[in-house]
Amino acid sequence: MTAPTAYAGVRYLVDDVQAAVDFYTRHLGFTSLTTAAPAFADVVRGPLRLLLSGPASSGARATPADARTAGGNRIHLVVDDLDAEIGRLRAAGLTFRSDVTAGPGGRQILLADPAGNLVELFQSA
Questions:
Q1: pLDDT (0 to 100) of residue 113
Q2: Which residue from 48, 53, 87, 100 could staple onto 57, CB 3.0 to 4.6 Å apart?
Q3: In 3-state terms, what secondary structure has residue 43?
Q4: What is the pLDDT of residues 59-102, one digit of tens each?
Q5: pTM for this entry
Q6: Which residues contact 61 (CB under 8 A, 6 or more apart)?
Q7: Helix (H) and strand (E) counts for the chain?
Q8: Would the pLDDT of 1 be above 80?
Q9: Alpha carbons 121 and 125: distance in angstroms, whole number
Q10: Which value, to the nearest 10 degrees, does the dihedral of the CA atoms of residues 18, 22, 24, 25 take?
Q11: How many domains does the chain have?
Q12: What is the percent of the chain with per-residue pLDDT over 90, rounded to a whole number?
């Protein structure tokens, strides 16, 4: 096994790599590392490296057909002010996949990227 790097990597399968890069960099504070659209790009935010794999990428081709749809898994992004983030993202024309949910640990809401992958925005209690 190779040595760990500074980032934890998560792969999302996307239909349109450039649309995904634009979504994450414009709206969620990610920085683009590599763009080899239409096949692949990766973006980072803190220690998270998000690998965006289009249909032509090796990562997408290696995925069984019955596992290619977006599921209940999601990345979890901590925000300081959930209500302000919701307002900012709604003003940018984005829609949410859930209402705000509150629990003992805090509050959260789900947003979907252009391919339907979920992003949880979370504010600690």
A1: 93
A2: 53
A3: strand
A4: 676 666 666 665 567 898 999 999 999 999 999 999 899 999 98
A5: 0.79
A6: 55
A7: 3, 8
A8: no
A9: 13
A10: 120
A11: 1
A12: 50
